[in-house]
Every structure is written in structure tokens, then in C-alpha cells.
Design goal:
Elements (H helix, E strand, L loop, with lengths): L4 E5 L6 H13 L1 H4 L3 E5 L5 H7 L6 E5 L23 E4 L2 H6 L4 H14 L2 E6 L3 H5 L3 H8 L11 E6 L13 H18 L8 E5 L8 H4 L7 E4 L6 H10 L2
Parallel strand pairs: 1-2, 1-8, 2-3, 3-4, 4-5, 5-6, 6-7, 7-8
Helix pairs in contact: 7-8
Length: about 250
Amino acid sequence: MNKKIFAANWKMYLNSNESREFMLKVNANKDLFSEFDIMIFPSHTAISIVQDLAKEFDNIKIGMQDCDVLTSGAVTGSNSITSHKVDSCIVGHSERRTIFNENDELIKKKLNNCLDKIGSAILCVGETLDEKEEKKTFEVIKKQLSILPDQIRGKNLDIAYEPVWAIGTGLVASKQYIEDVLSYINNLIKELYSVEDRPNIRLFYGGSVDENSVEELSSIALLDGFLIGSASADFEKFKNMLNKMR
């Protein structure tokens, strides 16, 4: 079984002090945390703290949870993709789509900013429960992926399939369901991109992933990694997930 990437989206679960405590525990368990490719997306105010405490780990990358459509200017309270030197940025997360009413046009601008400025991004896609029940999953995902650039040109793009109905609910899509959706996404990628571009595109799954589901889901052939929410902000739960995969 190939080692998977573990992307930790801490959302607003950890403040700056809690983020520091988490990373001190990571450093105290260096042997374990050095074995895996890990991405951490702290709150914006904790990025510098986490970066400083991750500097001994070549395998840990730090990113932003979101960015503004603009890279500078009079935009009070927002954050530019250039405000920190980061390795990646999440765009299109379902919470941004639903709570902040972000549409595909706006997400496309953010995605292009990330690829242009830092050469990397995680684009989240996924259907709601109503769309799933109406058998519109593929239709929804195709529309959400219609914003992809024509070429990647050496930049890194992670596509995270996160069914909205599985985020924060404790519900996990079945292994077969995830396989079917990732296969559909993979076929779209083959249509869109050249053989040269495809190695720079990775497929993630997110949606109530925890220590109980991670091992079974890791056997999905097309899956490169996980985008993990609340469980990744709990050190013991995150540690247990990694131990399951040793």
C-alpha cells in the first residue's frame, strides 16, 4: 500500500497557543511524523508559529485555509495568497461555498491566484445530500471542475473530493462510492490534461475521515491522500491515524 498524504485542515478549532502546543507534540514524536507526507492548514494567525515549529521537518508543508480573490488592496479583514510564504492553499471548500456563498467564478479566481503566485492549490469538490439523492453527483463535480486551467505547466494541483453530506457529520462515503467518484474525476483529468501534466495532479478524499476509517479508505487505488478536518486538530486522533498506517 502506497503511503498517503495527510492534509490537516484545522479550520477554527485551534488558536495560536493551541497550534503551538500541537506542534510541540509533533516535535516530541518526530520519528512518527517524519514517516509521512503531511500538510497542515492552521488558522491564518498561527501560520508563522506552525512554520517555525515545523522547520525541522522536510516532509511537513504549511498552507492557508483560504485566500482572497485579490492579492493586495483595500480589502479589510481578508488575506492575500501572498501574505505568507506558504506551500499550498485550500480553495472551494464546501464551507466557503455554503456559508460565504462562493460560486465557481470566484473560486476560479482564487485557484488561478494560488497557481500563479505559489504554484500549488487544493481544490475541493463535492455534492450535497440532495444532489446525491437526485443522482447528480457526476454532474455537480463536472461543473465544479470546469474552472480548471487549460494547462498545469509544472504546477501542483490537488483535487479533494469532499461530499458535503459527509463533512462534520460522522458519515463516511462507502469505499465503492469514493472509488467511483475518483474514477470519474480521473477520467476528466485524462481528457483535460496531457501525460506531462497529469503527474502533478493528486486526488484526495475528505469527509469525516478518522482513525476508524483511514485504514480501509487507504486501499483505494486512485487515492493519493486525505483532507482531514476536526480529527486532524486533535493530536491524539491524528497520531492514531498515522500509527494505523505505519
